[in-house]
Specification:
The protein has 18 helices and 14 strands. It is α+β, with helices and mostly antiparallel strands. The N and C termini lie far apart (about 60 Å).
């Protein structure tokens, strides 16, 4: 029988300080909550009740079975400052209409046409490197994936703007935890340098995206990309009107940023993990040599890049780019014998679930070989969910997998990346799981045969 008492959890004497505590070390705090209090753990943070769920069935119920009883959590409510009312932040019927509108850009046939651009930009990046050079692999992957999303979804070469976009996005994300505080709206009005940089960064990103829109308005027509779809869209429920520039901006900004940020992070973490695992790296090189020789990979090669896929799957287990998902209950919700009142924020965390020893033996170890068909079949649904689930499952999942595999194979053909000794590798959990200090690596050229 359900009870109205809150699930177990820590008692914090000063409630408003908990978001700061979470912001400083959520990657240790949240797993500790699961270990100490079980699969349903309660937090009180800044006047909000948060409940962390760590049972796969409970995660499925929130993201799929009972998804209509939830809306986006506090994090993405705050993300509206940057993304507007785009696909990632919109709710209800608005979200469903937007998803139907954007979905064709991610159909299988479209993704097949994007593959050559993915390998082209990966080839550009690898061709710039010189043997023995020190690179920031995180920055290089951001530049690469930004180029891909610019070309494939906006038919624009944005590579020259990659550094400015990257710095602007960093400035926005650096202010993320501050914007989660209950008095963030008041803080935004104060001359706090970190928040001022965030505001200026949003303005720079706006200028870039509005620039895309203005150029396309001047030269209209269907180029077969997402931006064309948005500009030509007619909303039947709004009398057949096209989208305003502001509406197009919100959707374009969401796809522009989400479409490269998460993929770049997944690739950077992959190079970091391979650098520390010579056996896995050797198997990657053996596979790309055998399957590709010295030619660029194509979409048809993906089924034969099995070990590369295992490596990336394991990298996203250990370092899931979307490390936490929040939902706010609309009505009462019963879970684990507890009845949660409306407005409770429910958290589900791939970071926590993916490192749970109940599902992943030696959970903190990089073991690509674990991802056999038999192991996948034995995993409970939602023990592994790097792209979320339900109606809000990442719309670009197939796009991301294609890009991850093709880019990783292209770079591994020619290069080994070695972590620079003493470089601090620190996960930075903001909206995505970034590398706080970048990823300084030495590029070592390899021959066809290792």
């Amino acid at each position: 029988m359900a009870t109205t008492a809150w699930p177990p959890g820590p008692a914090f004497g000063v409630r408003s300080l908990l978001p700061i505590a979470i912001g400083r070390d959520p990657l240790n705090l949240l797993p500790a909550l699961r270990r100490t209090y079980g699969d349903v753990a309660h937090l009180r943070a800044a006047g909000e009740h948060l409940v962390l769920l760590s049972n796969p069935q409970d995660v499925k119920d929130v993201l799929m079975t009972n998804q209509r009883n939830f809306r986006k959590g506090r994090g993405l409510e705050r993300a509206r400052k940057l993304l507007g009312n785009g696909l990632l932040t919109s709710e209800g019927e608005t979200h469903l209409r937007q998803r139907r509108l954007i979905q064709p850009a991610f159909h299988r046939e479209r993704i097949a046409s994007y593959a050559s651009a993915m390998t082209e930009y990966a080839d550009r990046v690898r061709s710039r490197w010189t043997n023995g050079a020190r690179i920031d692999a995180a920055e290089e992957m951001m530049r690469l994936t930004l180029g891909v999303v610019g070309r494939t979804l906006f038919d624009t070469d944005v590579e020259s703007q990659a550094r400015d976009v990257g710095q602007a996005l960093t400035d926005v994300l650096d202010s993320f935890w501050t914007t989660m505080l209950p008095f963030a709206d008041t803080l935004e009005k104060l001359p706090i340098p970190q928040l001022a940089r965030g505001r200026e960064a949003r303005a720079r990103l706006d200028a870039i995206v509005y620039g895309f829109i203005a150029e396309r308005r001047r030269n209209p027509g269907d180029r077969g990309d997402l931006l064309s779809m948005l500009l030509m869209a007619q909303d039947e429920e709004q009398g057949g009107k096209g989208m305003t520039d502001a509406q197009v901006r919100d959707e374009a900004m969401t796809i522009f940023l989400a479409g490269h940020e998460t993929t770049a992070n997944a690739l950077a973490w992959t190079w970091y993990l391979l650098s520390g695992s010579p056996d896995a790296e050797r198997q990657v090189h053996d596979e790309v040599d055998r399957v590709l020789g010295d030619r660029l990979p194509t979409l048809a090669d993906i089924p034969n890049l099995r070990y590369v896929e295992q490596v990336i799957t394991e990298a996203m287990r250990l370092y899931p780019p979307a490390w936490i998902i929040g939902r706010r209950a609309i009505n009462e919700y019963t879970v684990g014998g507890y009845t949660l009142p409306p407005r409770t924020i429910v958290l589900v965390s791939p970071w926590v679930m993916h490192r749970d020893e109940r599902f992943f033996p030696e959970p903190d170890h990089f073991r690509p070989e674990r991802w056999t068909p038999e192991f996948r079949a034995s995993l409970p649904q939602f023990a592994y969910f790097p792209f979320g689930g339900g109606a809000r499952r990442c719309i670009g999942e197939s796009f991301a997998w294609t890009e991850l595999l093709l880019v990783a194979a292209t770079i591994a053909q020619q290069w080994r990346l070695r972590l620079v000794p003493e470089h601090p590798v620190v996960p930075q959990p903001v909206v995505t799981l970034r590398l706080k200090h970048g990823l300084k690596m030495t590029a070592e050229r390899r021959g066809l045969q290792s």
